[in-house]
Amino acid sequence: MSCVKDFVQKRIRAEKPADLWSWSHETHKVNINDLLKQKFESVDHHSGYGIGEDDSLSVEEDPVHHGQYVLSVFYKRGTWSHYNHNGVECHNGEKCQRGAGFYIQPKSIRDAGHQFISMTLEYEVFFNNSFGWQRGGKLPGLWGGTRDCSGGRISDHCFSTRLMWRPDGQGEVYAYVTHDQKAGVPFNTWCESVQHRELYHQVHCTDGTGTEIGKGAFHFEKGKWIKLREHVHLNSHQHEHGYVTLWVNDHAEIHMNDIVIRNQFNFGIDGILFSTFYGGSDHTWACPADTTTLYRNFRLYAEAPHLNNNELVG
């Protein structure tokens, strides 16, 4: 029996994709700036926000796995997007406790240039029991190219595929992709053609903001760790389709396989856009009460996970 068990364990290890980068947790409380510098490769502090024990991002003990320490993001009541709890716009370096954001580009990806057109991001997120969904907020996702695909900025020189929570914990992929989706067809016309499909590949578009994929295909839950796995495959030619797939707790929930992610080909997938805050373009998105989210078990790898199409429903 032990020989069979050893064989199975070795096979599982052999089949596990090789990580480009990973971080699971710490075994003791550490300073967040030291952690980012030592283990979160190529964190750009200049474009980051919310980083620091006296701001939003810190390291705290895991409420489920005692003795393990994970990333914790604090959201102050009344904050949204880039505004503080008094509705005043936050400026660089100001500690607003509105959430946290920074880019992670591991050395293994930098050394490879822009060759990655396929990548998978895994991590776990924990919403505490008092978390208020309000109108919604952002969660980390993949990114590539310049750093201009967020905050309502649409660019043909980058993409991002962050996740979002919505009212009642509805989830979605919130993508910034090229608006040149179909030759000779306006973006809004394309949006209308894909907004009445099954939830797992339904699209909603709003002028000047991201493209909502699979909104409501699944729901986040409070008080437990949720495993997220996002795979992005970039298109290689103009008007060729790429695809975005999302698994929640190892169950495929979103699969958009007919979306053009880029129409410029001098960039690939560069890493993670760690971005989380409430909002949103106005105060109706504001955080309803002081609250936190937690993050652990990050992995980046190039392989595409197996997709069971029978899981995709609704």
Automatic annotation (TrEMBL):
Signal peptide: none
Domain of life: Eukaryota
Domain annotation Polysaccharide lyase: ranges: 66-298
InterPro entries cross-referenced by the UniProt entry: Polysacc_lyase_14
Pfam families: Polysacc_lyase_14
Name of the protein this chain belongs to: Polysaccharide lyase 14 domain-containing protein
Source species taxonomy: Eukaryota, Metazoa, Spiralia, Lophotrochozoa, Mollusca
